[in-house]
C-alpha cells in the first residue's frame, strides 16, 4: 500500500511518483534560492541544508569542469537537474508508503533518452555534420588536396555499424543500471520493513541512502562524460 493507490486506476503509479519528485525538486530549488537571497553570499554557521547544497553543487561543478572542459557552465544546469531529480526520486523509494519513480523502467528510460539527446545535440551543435566522424573510426590518412586537409577513414565500413549500435546502446545501459540498482534496493528495504520493522531495516536504509547518492552520481557523471566526448573534435 502506498499514497498513490487511491488514484492508480486513473493515473499510473509512475506518473504520480514522477510528478511528486518533480514538485519536491522545485520546492527544494525555491527553498535554496530564498535562503541565498536572505543570507547573501556568506555561508550559514554549522551544517545547514543550504551549506549541504552548496557543497554538493560545488563538487558537481568541479567534476563538470574536469569532464566537460571550458564550456561546462553551458551544460551544467541540465546535468545538475538530472542529478537532483534522480537523487530525490531515489530517496523517495526509501520512505515507507511513498515509493520512488526510479524503480520503474519508464522513468529510467526517459532520463536515459534525455541524456542521450542532450549530448548528441551538443555534438551536432558544436561540430555540425562532422560529428558523424566520431562513429567512423580514426583518420589513417590525411592528404592535402587543393590547400585543404582531408581525413580518410579507411576503416569506416567496419567501425560505423559497430559504433552506431554501441552509441544507441548507451540508452539501454543508463536506463538498466539505474533501474536494476534502485529496484533491488527499494525491494530489499520494503521486505525487511515488512518482516522486521525495528533496527534491521535501518541498516538497509543506511545502505540504501548510499546507493541513492551513488546511482544519481554515476548517472550524472556518465552524462557529463558523454557531453565532454561530444565537445571534443573528431580525429
List keywords for this structure.
mainly alpha; two-stranded antiparallel ribbon
Please, what is the average pLDDT? 81
Low-pLDDT stretches are none
The order of strands across the largest sheet is 1-2
The major beta sheet can be summarized as: 2 strands, antiparallel
Give the CA-CA distance, first to last residue. Answer: 55 Å
Overview of the molecule:
- This protein is mostly helical.
- The protein has one domain (5-231).
- The chain has helices spanning 13-39, 49-68, 72-92, 105-127, 156-195, 200-231; strands at residues 144-145, 148-149.
- A hairpin with a 2-residue loop joins strand 1 and strand 2 (148-149).
- It is globular.
- The mean pLDDT is 81.
Quick summary:
With 235 residues, the protein is an all-alpha fold. It has helices spanning 13-39, 49-68, 72-92, 105-127, 156-195, 200-231; strands at 144-145, 148-149.
Helix-strand layout with pairing:
Blueprint: H1 13-39, H2 49-68, H3 72-92, H4 105-127, E1 144-145, E2 148-149, H5 156-195, H6 200-231
Antiparallel strand pairs: 1-2
Helix pairs in contact: 1-3, 2-3, 2-6, 3-6, 4-5, 4-6, 5-6
Amino acid at each position: 500500500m502506498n499514497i498513490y493507490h487511491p488514484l492508480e486506476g486513473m493515473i499510473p503509479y509512475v506518473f504520480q511518483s514522477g510528478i511528486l519528485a518533480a514538485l519536491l525538486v522545485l520546492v527544494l530549488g525555491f527553498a535554496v534560492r530564498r535562503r541565498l537571497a536572505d543570507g547573501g553570499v556568506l555561508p550559514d554557521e554549522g551544517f545547514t541544508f543550504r551549506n549541504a547544497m552548496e557543497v554538493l553543487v560545488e563538487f558537481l561543478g568541479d567534476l563538470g569542469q574536469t569532464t566537460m572542459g571550458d564550456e561546462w557552465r553551458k551544460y551544467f544546469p541540465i546535468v545538475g537537474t538530472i542529478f537532483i531529480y534522480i537523487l530525490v526520486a531515489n530517496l523517495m523509494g526509501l520512505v515507507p508508503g511513498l515509493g520512488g519513480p526510479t524503480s520503474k523502467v519508464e522513468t529510467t528510460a526517459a532520463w536515459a533518452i534525455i541524456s542521450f539527446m542532450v549530448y548528441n545535440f551538443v555534438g551536432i551543435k558544436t561540430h555540425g555534420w562532422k560529428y558523424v566522424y566520431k562513429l567512423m573510426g580514426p583518420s589513417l590518412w590525411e592528404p592535402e588536396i587543393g590547400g585543404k586537409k582531408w581525413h580518410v577513414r579507411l576503416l569506416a565500413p567496419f567501425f560505423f555499424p559497430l559504433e552506431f549500435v554501441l552509441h544507441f546502446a548507451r540508452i539501454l545501459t543508463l536506463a538498466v543500471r539505474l533501474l536494476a540498482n534502485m529496484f533491488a534496493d527499494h525491494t530489499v528495504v520494503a521486505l525487511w520493513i515488512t518482516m522486521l520493522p525495528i533496527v534491521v531495516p535501518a541498516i538497509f536504509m543506511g545502505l540504501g541512502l548510499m546507493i541513492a547518492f551513488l546511482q544519481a552520481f554515476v548517472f550524472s557523471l556518465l552524462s557529463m562524460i558523454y557531453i565532454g566526448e561530444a565537445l571534443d573534435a573528431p580525429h
